[in-house]
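# step 3/5: fold
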Amino acid sequence: MKRFIRYSIVLISMFIIGAGIVSQAAADLSAGEARKLIARVAGIELPSDAVRVKEVSSLGSSAVVVAQIETAFRLVKNDDGKWRVAEIRTGDN
């Protein structure tokens, strides 16, 4: 179960790390702006303190951001005794 949770977190992190974030401004992308954009990725509204920007690399009109995202997963055991992800928690509730 712990391996599954770690694997899920790694996959989400790889998605974010690998995604180029395009800045709408002509200036370099700031860590704060990157944090806000990542917090709203894929329609998920993460609290800003759940996103920690480690590095921003800008090149022209695009940037690559290395960030950590803190989430929680609720898993349940089905009738077959197998675990499945029932919920991804993105906030305090």
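# step 4/5: annotate
Confidence is low (pLDDT under 50) at residues 20-26.
# step 5/5: archive (pending)
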